[in-house]
Amino acid sequence: MRQKKKYFIATRMGLIQRSKIRELFERASKMKGVISLGIGEPDFDTPANVKEAAKRAIEEGWTHYTPNAGIQELREAIVEYYKKFYDVDVEIDNVIVTAGAYEATYIAFETLLEQGDEVIIPDPAFVSYVEDAKLAEAKPIRIPLREENDFMVDPDELLELVTKRTRMIVINYPNNPTGAVLEKEVAKAIADIAQDYNIYILSDEPYEHFLYDDAKHYPMIKFAPENTILVNSFSKTFAMTGWRLGFAIAPSQIIKDMVKLHAYVIGNVTSFVQVAGVEALRSEESWKAVEKMRKEYAERRKIVLDRLKKMPYIKVREPKGAFYIFPNISETEMSSEEFSEWLLEKAKVVVIPGTAFGKNGEGYIRISYATSREKLIEAMDRIEKALSEVK
Prior knowledge:
Layout: H1 20-29, E1 35-36, H2 48-59, H3 72-86, E2 95-98, H4 100-112, E3 118-123, H5 128-135, E4 139-144, H6 155-161, E5 166-171, H7 184-196, E6 200-204, E7 228-233, E8 246-249, H8 252-265, H9 271-282, H10 284-309, E9 324-325, H11 336-347, E10 349-350, E11 352-353, E12 365-368, H12 373-388
Parallel strand pairs: 1-10, 3-4, 3-5, 5-6, 6-7
Antiparallel strand pairs: 2-8, 7-8, 9-12, 11-12
Helix pairs in contact: 2-9, 3-9, 4-5, 4-8, 9-10, 10-12
């Protein structure tokens, strides 16, 4: 009998952990009647004018390679956008167009970090930062985000973690998974630390337009332009997740080297997708669609918060951004993973255990309200019923 072939896999692949979020989705996909509050994806369609722009671009021959850093017009539109919305001056040489914020983050880590460098990453935080740090052979240092501090980075704690090896701080506000926003004074304090100790800030800002109540967003390039690599995406803002369109803004010397790596990773972002990106940023129609989405998210947020506040064993702090709620479930005396498994089996509702985002997420779950009101109401009914039966 022929022996099964053994494949030799690079050691670095053993460093990467598979996303617990994906594992849950795969389990849920095999069950009938499941409502998912797990996916971090808008349920809205891409604005019609953006789709039409992509179709026109294909007809007009936008089917070939583009410059590695992105087409001139899209980079100019990104520059205009930051001036218009935030009164921040960005040069075109400070911009690279990427395959979503995922790629922008990956090439920033690979460009700026090397073996032995330390990168300070919030806990809980979006799953890719730690894995990207490992691939860059850097050491992830976790800084806890605490509920009593509205899940903001504490500048004093941050300062205590800075060593001679600290090369980068990762910031993500409005925050995934907590829905927190960063107050202006805290953003300034983080910027001051980065400047004083010559540390990079990787600021991941894809949820910037989904803010509620009196919340405001301050891009980190406003406070530390020479230290910041700002990563952003069209995915959440314009409901363009499948288009894979994002960008990074950084000092031109850093962008130059990010472009070098990007050229070997993907070459360039799909040409007609870039043309659609120009339409998204410059058209009034797109921004009307964004505001419509934000208002709908605000309504859904209210539905879910109002229901959760009345449920036994659940404590919830009102998030001010993104489309996530991060309830505290520790009174159930189940771990985050146990609770998520129990809820899937008992109520057929998918939520993400807080520990998927780091050890500090223990005692919490992430709920996404990027789904219809009908499904949210039904999911809340199911959760409430399941909790009422907890002894």
